[in-house]
Amino acid sequence: MKITLNRINDDFLFECTNSQGNSILLDNTSQPGAKGVSPMESVLMAVAGCSGIDVVSILKKQRQDIKSFQAEVEGERVQIDDAKPFKSINVKFLLEGEIDPKKALKAAELSFEKYCSVSKTLEPNVEIGYEVFVNGEKI
Predict the structure, then answer these.
(1) Cross-strand pairs, 6
(2) Is residue 3 very low, low, confident or very high in pLDDT (cuts 50, 70, 90)?
């Protein structure tokens, strides 16, 4: 796996591109007029995307009818010397449709305990939690 990063302005705007040519913009969001996401926001996005792919994949295999899928991810950071790494990350899955709540909860559990490479990469240093809501009800 490889990405390339190219600076595309005179400040902090970077384009990161994967081997298929897909890209995202990273920027220093503490500056006015930022045009991309911060690198730390991209970490939260990666957790949401990785676990989201897992949960949807598991539920599709179980023939659950997902009408809507959203994830909200929040990260708490801590000051360590000059850096502010994540101390904890919490993912809230919001699913709508003909979905067995027990299957949705199990899918999230499998993602974080077995499949999600992003959370597994962070796990030794970051506490990762999750919540699952199906049709507005917390499971």
Answers:
(1) 15
(2) very high
